[in-house]
Amino acid sequence: MSKRYVMIHDENRCIGCQACSVACRSENGTPEGVSRLQVRVEGPFGDAPHLHFKYNRVSCQQCENAPCVTVCPTGAAYVGDDGLVTIKEDKCVGCMYCVAACPYKVRFMNPETKAADKCNFCKDTRLARGELPACVTVCPTDALTFGDANDPQSDVAKLINTKATYQEKTHLGTQPRVYRIPTKRGGIQS
Amino acid sequence: MIELDRRTFIKGAGAGGATCALATLLPGSLAALEQQPLKAVGKEVASICEMCSTRCPISARVVDGKNVFISGNKEAKSFGGKVCARGGAGHSLLYDPQRIVNPLRRVGERGEGQWEEITWQQAYQTIAKNLNDIKAKHGAEAVAFSSKSGSLSGHLFHLGKAFGSPNSFTHASTCPGGYVIAAKAMFGTKVKRDLGNSKYIINFGHNLYEGINMSETRGMMKAQMEKNAKLVVFEPRFSVVADKADEWFAIRPGTDLAVALALCHVLIEDKLYDHAFIEQHVVGFEAFAEEVKACTPEWAQGVSDVPAKDIRRIAHEYAAHAPHAVVDFGHRATFTPEEFDMRRALFAANVLIGNIERKGGLYLGKKAKTYNKFAGNKVAPTLGKPGVEGLPKPTAKRIDQVDEQYAMMWSSGGIYQTILDATLEAKPYQLKAWVMSRTNPMQTMTDRARVVESLKKLDFVVCCDVYISETAAYADIILPESTYLERDEEIADKSGKNPAYYVRQRVVETIGQTKPSWQIFKELGEEMGLGQFFPWENMESLQLLQVNRDVTLWNTIKEKGYVSYGKPLMLREPSMVAAFTAHYPEAKATDADGTYASAMSFKTPSGKIELSSDKVEKMAAGRGVIKYRPVQLKQADELYFIQGKVAVHTNGATHNIPMLANLMSDNGVWIHPLTAGKLGISSGDKIRLSSSVGSEEGTALVTPGIRQDTVFAYMGFGSKNKELARATGKGIHCGNLLPHQTAPICGMNIHTTGITLAKI
Amino acid sequence: MNNTWGDMAQYDPVTWNWIIAVYLFMAGLSAGSILIGIGLRWYSKDKSIESAILKAAAIISPVAISLGLACLVFDLTKPFHFWLILINYNLSSVMSIGVLALLAYSPIGIAYSLIVLRDELPKWKLGFLVPLAHALMPFRKAIEVVLFVLAIGVGAYTGFLISAMNAYPMLNTAVLPALFLVSGLSAGAAANAIGALVMFNTSSHDATLGKMHGLELPVMLSEMMFLFMLFCALYFKGGAAAAALASLTTGVWASVFWIGVVGIGFAIPLLSMLMPAQTRHTKGVMIAVACCSLTGVLALRHFVLYAGQSYIS
């Protein structure tokens, strides 16, 4: 069976500490001023004292139906055999159509390569070495889970089957592979 | 003299010898060095982080010959192989072009930013001559030595001792000293919290989800997510911990003591406390119970704004989960001048439910010696210490030794801020020189203007650091220390419920002319004619001395980076004691109830937990019993000004590190919408904060996550020296707004004050 | 909460800037200009005469598309690798299809211009191209039809290019290609008028010019209708789409819309029709009104591109 790599971000566990973002930058050599991954602590929302933050992981959603791949004129943005939305740097001319078309605004022009860039679940670096993505590796509170959702024994499959999750902007038909476990308002329950 | 790293040294344009004010072309900075590929010592090296004072075990990897990826060391289970943003950004410090990699001498006025590069030899000679002259004229005690606590302070303080000065200080009184001294008074030693196994956690603004302490942060999350623990947070602002809490109460700043005493009141009056535990292990209960009789929840509500019915309910819920419940005693202190009693009251709430040495409660560290005694077996090796004989005995008193009430602090890092009094007012005598290592009082001590005045007045100032910090900017000589990724250091004790050791090891070869502090202070000592007090040759010889020449042990520790021995043990937890005795047949016999409760001993005068302390009463009359005293932290027309930690920075140390500066370089000031509305302030507006000692310009962040009478800012921003190019002038400088005030008994300097706010 | 996650510049939803707006404008102008030129020729009685309008279109159309493509290429982060886009195709990408259309449109457009301008070429020291123009003459009808179809494609393509991005409710509408095509016609007519009046010194009472003038009102009315439809669609869709209507009332792009698109682009040309005939048909007024139309179309491209990208669903 083909692989279906997914990532699950548990917003109850996430503390917005940016360890993931720093690890990502280190592993992938992302230049200053641009990011493959940010976790934004948004809010607080609600009325005091019933306030809450939203811990918003901002990174490539690895859409099954990726607008960036559809619009790319040269095929530089493509879906690899592993199902991951990937970029062939030397095929990219830098028209920024993919950057504009991404509903999640997570693609950017890498100022060093001049090609489009984004999170690829550390496909070239850590996955290639059989390791977990950098963000998952360092996350202090184990808020991130990564794996093959097609494997029913994987942690991600179990989580998706047992926890309420949501994906962002599904109304656009993108079918993102980043799942989120929403914060329980007014405290944590597992 | 040893010159270990003699390399080709190519100076950047205009840098050599001449003075240069531009930080990017700062003489002695890494930018002035020719770029060269770095040699990795190994592919994955286990070491210890130094991006904050928690010092987590790490594993560092060299990628593509240069870039170091840092994760946690998986050998250390409670750390989970994890690392925070600061820890992960270590290599960003390592390769920062603004790092100082050559000794520097000041050539302009102090703080003017005019530097020239000198050799180590010149630096040592200058320092030796100046310090020895001062010693000859004014006595060794006229020189103060201060350092961030940890592996570095040992070597600097050893030099201070060899030199003959009693005046050595850590940053304790500006940071964690309060709970340390309170614990010392009550338990005779530091205590640890077992958050991970707790079922009910009461937290008084211990911001573990932003001020990350990896094992504790993970512990609290584990308790919340996997054990369904309830978390109650009392904090004036809506922090990340408050967000993750089941209940958040926006307590009035500095009134935690009232709520803690009210909790104790309910526990005692409603007979919810562990009577047997108190009988067996505690002294001073009656006096304490008498004192808190008046501390009703209704009274506490008036002081703290926390509803009485909630305090009552929480006390009952807390007791219902006893003994697997805990009141977190916090970390960074100084919310109030009543710091000492506040921390003692938090400890008292734990003692009352008898959670000491119980899962989810408080416990004492089990170092090898203690652990082996219980096991009846040498389960864990003990470390040897390098004995140095004939160290001079200082004749003078410490400068903070003016008032007996601070006696417990003298051996716990001292009252750091007394350096200012001794310098400016010759209290109790005149200080002439200050030697610092990796400490930044300009940021972390209160009343920045007074720190500047002191640094300007001293005859001689030496700073050892990795950057020209705000403090180092006022030094005469700057000694460039290697970053932790280039240093080997002594094996350190990391024992918790069972013994553990870990070690810092170099990950890459040294860059530039930097040196580790053990080497700097040994070589400086030799230059000062104190060579006989530094009998070890190098770090390797020191480590071998520690492991008592057991090379196998040495190699194991170095290879794994972190080793632990035995099973976790809490003396009063029956299941753990049973597992322990089953595993170690020669283990000490248990009590009738299957625990080691009777073997529990405390290093207090009574040998028991001292809820009230005669020792403290003798040090300061009227302070033996924990007591509420009203304090005035601000004027009626002012707002409380409080600070806190953010996950991406360490107070006063990391704000210039590229990766971290890029994440956050400004500290927008939290203001409640109604407070802001009255002053016509909107988010993003330029504002001015004025206190009794200073005034700062900042940016407003209007948010409902703060009390109306309070403003909040993250600590450590707004550096004022031009050398820290990425951090300078960004955000407000908290230390510049805080007046100089010292808390009784613990000697902490207080970090809550009143300010007025205006739109610019 | 303070920003602890770093630089947000890359997340600015406005990815494509004014250079792309100018490209969209130029492509629309090029297509509109030649469509009007050819269309009027088909409706003219004497097909042997090259009208000043057609000659103007024959110049404006290739020049506009060249300038537009230059904008496009130099907006690439790797402008010197633009050839990659010519050898790699992804037919699910509107841009790729557009490249194919432009690859055909540009040379055919130039060929057609040579035919139309065959008598003018010697005046511009381009006499050496006359034999080529004559050689192409037998294929004029075929070239004309193909170019007409391609021009409709190019005109609509610029709309499809941005309407294919489904995250932007204002862009992701069916009327956008039609709106761009019609406003391209508007721009083309205006540019052709200026070209004819200035370059070929046409009388302001020229018959073809008059015919083209007659087209302006219906074109402008359909442009307004499409705009109205666009906003209605957003309004009735609700949610993020309705939120995008805020672009009409807030920010700099609201001013661009009301002053540039409505005021200069629609109101001035419409009001000019109320002027007495002799004033209205003076050269100066005609050029001024045409300039207003062009400005309005350029403003529309800017408004749609910027406001469209500013509101993401």
Automatic annotation (TrEMBL), chain A:
Domain 4Fe-4S ferredoxin-type: 5-34, 51-82, 83-112
InterPro entries in alphabetical order: 4Fe4S_Fe-S-bd, 4Fe4S_Fe_S_CS, ET_IronSulfur_Cluster-Binding
Keyword tags: 4Fe-4S, Iron, Iron-sulfur, Metal-binding, Repeat
Family annotation (Pfam families): Fer4_11
GO MF annotations in UniProt: 4 iron, 4 sulfur cluster binding; metal ion binding
UniProt keyword Repressor, yes or no: no
Protein name: Polysulfide reductase chain B
From TrEMBL, chain C:
Top-level taxon of origin: Bacteria
Primary localization: membrane
Keyword NADP among UniProt keywords: no
Keyword Cell membrane: yes
Membrane topology label: Multi-pass membrane protein
Cell compartments where the protein resides: Cell membrane
A Pfam family assignment: NrfD
Chain segments annotated as transmembrane: 20-40, 52-74, 94-117, 145-168, 174-200, 221-246, 252-272, 284-304
Cellular-component GO terms for this entry: plasma membrane
Keywords linked to the UniProt accession: Cell membrane, Membrane, Transmembrane, Transmembrane helix
Family: Belongs to the NrfD family.
Protein name (database record): Polysulfide reductase
Organism: Shewanella colwelliana
